[in-house]
Design a protein that fits this description.
Layout: E1 30-38, E2 48-49, E3 54-60, E4 62-67, E5 73-76, E6 80-83, E7 90-95, E8 102-110, E9 118-119, H1 122-127
Antiparallel strand pairs: 1-8, 2-9, 3-6, 3-8, 4-5, 4-7
């Protein structure tokens, strides 16, 4: 635990901090807390992007998480995640467990009235395929 968090009362824990995230928050943004619950083996939403940054953590199970420019990785309950939003494509947010539910809770910072996510079409995916890290 860092010295800046040493004063926290018992039971209060800082899971993750990302100071550089503040620069990505759009002016006039609202904060939205979103819970995503995925049944066993659910592939999650198709490739999409968010209107602003997303910061959160996995509360249950395992999520196969992939952002443009990053290799896919498995996030387990208690792991934190960050998406910059904007132009970055979110390729996967799938339940990595075939026999159990997985869940994550995120806070998104987005301009009021914007959609939580916007799907990315096949043509754009093709144009940007060079930005996707191949699976090992």
């Amino acid at each position: 635990m860092s010295a800046e968090h040493a004063h926290l009362p018992p039971g209060v824990e800082v899971i993750a901090a990302l100071p550089e995230a503040a620069a990505r928050i759009p002016a006039g943004a609202e904060a939205r807390t979103i819970r995503v619950t995925l049944p066993p083996g659910d592939p999650g939403a198709p490739p999409h992007r968010h209107p602003g940054p997303v910061f959160g953590y996995v509360t249950q199970g395992e999520i196969l998480f992939e952002l443009e420019g990053q290799p896919p990785r498995v996030l387990k309950a208690g792991d934190a995640l960050f998406e910059p939003g904007g132009d970055v494509i979110h390729y996967q947010g799938a339940n990595n467990l075939p026999d159990a539910q997985s869940q994550l809770v995120v806070t998104m910072f987005a301009p009021p009235g914007t959609p939580v996510l916007t799907l990315v079409g096949a043509e754009e995916l093709g144009e940007r395929r060079h930005l996707r890290i191949p699976r090992p």
